[in-house]
Amino acid sequence: MSRNGYNEGCLAAHALDLIGDRWALLVLRELMLGPKRFGLIKAGLPGIATNILTRRLEALEASGLLRHHRLPPPASVAVYELTEAGLATRDVIDALCRWGVQQPGHDPTKFISPTALMLSMRVMVRPDRVTSPIEAGFIMGDERFTARLDMTGFTPRPAPGALPALTFSGSGNTLAIAVYGPSPVAPLAAGGVIGLAGDPDTAQRFVDAFRLGA
């Protein structure tokens, strides 16, 4: 799509003028749980060329959907962070997940970023399967999250500090196998497919609250 846009007064066309370029929504996805450095955004989008990512970030900043700033000391690193308008695209991404899971052809063996897994779990959770709240941690390479699972849903957030006693580790793809696949957690951990710290029974109760489907 040209940056000239669709030149229509339709509200849907206006929205696509802002977020309809290839990769734009996925860049927003990678920032949905918190600010990130350029390199970490790129790690979550391995198929994007560096120059295209730079252009998308510049366009999204110009549209008021994200901002580029430097974190205060001691971090003192430059990060990209969603604005209120950028965060409001969460409903769009959630809706695409709900629609996409109903369409044939999904290939879960393709790359799944850590943030993409967390966001999919937020959509695919079944709160009616939760009998008691569970706090869990996730280590996926350079990204770490904590999450609360309870009767209201699944709430992930970045984890700058200590992780809960129950912590899963692996890649986005291997942890997706543990969360959505048919195999129990314990043998996956015993076979080295994922890492697991904490009680296996609690881990199983945790993943049993998710189902990849409508």
Structural domain count: 2
Second-tier CATH architecture of the largest domain: 2-Layer Sandwich
Question: What name does the CATH topology of the largest domain carry?
Answer: Nonspecific Lipid-transfer Protein, Chain A
Rough shape?
Answer: globular
The total count of strands amounts to 7
Q: Can you list the strand order of the major beta sheet?
A: 5-4-3-6-7
N-end to C-end Cα span: 31 Å
Supply the key terms.
alpha+beta, Nonspecific Lipid-transfer Protein, Chain A, Arc Repressor Mutant, subunit A, about 210 residues, two-stranded antiparallel sheet, about 40% helix, five-stranded mixed β-sheet
Account of the 3D structure:
The chain has 214 residues and is an alpha+beta fold. It folds into two domains: 11-100, Winged helix-like DNA-binding domain superfamily/Winged helix DNA-binding domain (Arc Repressor Mutant, subunit A, Orthogonal Bundle), CATH 1.10.10; 114-207, SCP2 sterol-binding domain (Nonspecific Lipid-transfer Protein, Chain A, 2-Layer Sandwich). The protein has ten helices and seven strands. The protein has helices at 11-19, 24-30, 38-43, 50-62, 84-87, 90-100, 114-124, 172-180, 185-190, 200-207, and strands at residues 66-70, 78-82, 134-140, 143-150, 153-158, 167-169, 195-197. The strands form two sheets. A five-stranded mixed sheet has the order 5-4-3-6-7. A two-stranded antiparallel sheet has the order 1-2. Strand 1 (66-70) and strand 2 form a beta hairpin. Helix 7 (114-124) runs parallel beside helix 8 (172-180). The longest helix has 13 residues, at 50-62. The two termini are 31 Å apart.
